[in-house]
Amino acid sequence: MTEPLEHSTGPGDQLIVAIDQGTSATKAIVVDRTGRIRSKATAALTQSFPRPGWAEQDALEIWDSVQQAVTDSLAGLDPAAVVAIGLSTQRESTLLWDRASGAPLGPVLGWQDTRGAALCARLREAGQAERVRAITGLPLDAMFSASKAAALLDEHDPDRVRSRAGELCLGTVDSWMIWQLGGGRHLIEAGNASRTMLLDIDAGQWDPWLLELFDIPAAVLPAVVASTGPFVTATALDALPSPVPVTGVLGDSHAALIAHAGWQPGRVKVTYGTGSSVMGVTTGQHTPTGVARTIAWDLGTPTYALEGNIRSSGATLVWLARLFNTTPAEIAASAADSSNGVTIVPAFTGLGAPWWDDQAQALISGLSEVTTRHHLARAGLESIAFQVEDVIAAIATGEDPIEVILADGGPSTNPVLMQVQADLSDRRVKTTSVSELSALGAAHIAGLGIGLWSIADLEDLPRNGVTYTSALSQHQRRDKQSTWHAAINAAISLPRTSGAV
C-alpha cells in the first residue's frame, strides 16, 4: 500500500528513505531536507504462533517487505535524489543465518517469544539475576534476545562448533537488514545491542561473563556501532539506481523518542503497538524497580533511557477481534463508556514491566450475566492504559519526574484510549499527527548522520497533535487502580497451565 503525498522531485532535492521494520508490517517514508514526509508506503507481514509462548516470523518475508515498501514509497519521486537511508527496527527479535550463503537457519524468534523462559527461570533460581541486571540494565527475562539466541543455537548448532568457527551469524532484525542491504557486513546498532541482554551497557561491549552464561560464542555476534554508524552502503535495494549510505539506525521505540524530541526533560514516550514501549531519557544512574536502563542512542557518546515494555497492548484488541470475528478498529470503536466491572489482564505470554513475570496467566475478572462484548472492548482498552500507567509510575520513582506522556502508534489515534490514559495517569497526554513516528525518527537520525540537520534543527520542527487531561477524581482513580492491581495479583498467582512453555 502506497500513499504518495507529493509526486515531484525538483533539482537539488535531497531525500532520505526511512524504513521502519515492525512486527505486523514494514513501512517506508521519504523525507526531504525540511523534515517533510513526501511519500509513504506499507507492506504487511505475517506472524505465526506455533506453540503457546512462541512467536515466529520469516526473515526472507521481512526482507521482501522492505523491498516492496521502499519501491512503493519512491513511486513518482526521483530515486537518484536519495542521499541517505535510515532504519528503525523491532528490537529483541532474533535470528540465525549462514555467513557464507546468507540463508536464515529457522525463523525469526519474535520479541514476544518466550521459549527461553525456562532457561531464564533456572538462571534466576541460581541467583544470577542481580548480576545480569547490573551489567545490562535489564531484568533477566525471556523477552530479551539472549535466551532466544541460546534456543536458536541449541537447535541449529548445539555443540557451538560452527558458531566458534565464525560460520554463523546471530543478530537482531537491524543486523539482518544491514547484512542484506550492505552485502554481508555483520553489525548491530548500540541501542539494539543494549536490548540483547548480552551487552555491558556502560562499556558498550559484549560481556564475556554473559556470553558464557548463555553459551553464546563471541564469533557469532555482530560488531557494535554507534547510532549514526559507520554502517554500510546499501547496494541491494531494487528501487535505488546507485548505492546509498545507511547513516542512521535505531530500535523502533528509540526512533519514536527521537521524533518526539524526547530528550527534553519531564517527558516520557509511549509507543502503542502490538506491545507498548514506555521510554524516557534519564540523567541519573539509578534504575527504579520494575523498569530497565537501556541505551537510547549513541551519537558519539551514549544517551541512556529508562524503559518498561508491555507485551500485549494492541495485541489485546487483535485477540478480542479474533474472538468476535471482527477487526481491532471495530472493537475499539464499540467500547462501552464503562467496563461494568470487567477487568482483562492480557498476560498471553506473561507480564512485562513492571512485573516481569513470564509465568503470569491471562485472565478476565468481573464477568456477569449482563456482560457484553462492548464491556469487554472497554476492558481491553483499559488494560492498555493500566499497564502503561504502572510503568510510568515505576519510572517516576527515579530521578526524572514525569509530567507529559508523548503518545504514538496506531492505538494512540483512539480518543477513548487516550482519555482513559490521561484519567489513569493524571498527566497530560499529547498525541502526534504523524502516524509513522518510528520511521520519522529513523529519518531524523539518518539526517543527523549525514549532516543534513542538527539536534537544534530537529527540536524546532513543528509537532502537531491533541492534548488530553484527566477528568477523574483522585478517589475514582484510586478505586480503578485497586481493582486492576487485584486482578494483576490474581494473574501472577494462577498456576501454570499444562500448555505453557
Task: Describe the protein's architecture and organization.
It is globular, with a radius of gyration of 22 Å. It is built from 16 helices and 24 strands. With 501 residues, it is an alpha+beta fold. Helix 9 (252-259) packs across helix 14 (437-450), helix 10 runs antiparallel to helix 12 and helix 12 (373-395) packs across helix 13 (415-425).
Tags for this entry?
single chain; 501 residues; alpha+beta; Nucleotidyltransferase, domain 5; 2 domains; seven-stranded mixed beta sheet; 16 helices; 24 strands; 23% strand
Distance N terminus to C terminus? 37 Å
By CATH, the superfamily of the largest domain comes out as: ATPase, nucleotide binding domain
Instruction: Point out poorly predicted stretches.
Output: none
What structural class is derived from the secondary structure elements? alpha+beta
Mean pLDDT over the residues = 92
- Shape field: globular
Beta content comes to: 15-25%
Largest sheet, order of strands side by side?
A: 1-4-3-2-6-15-14
Total E-strand runs: 24
CATH class of the largest domain: Alpha Beta
Domain unit count: 2
Main β sheet profile: 7 strands, mixed
Q: Tell me which CATH architecture of the largest domain applies here.
A: 2-Layer Sandwich
Number of helices: 16
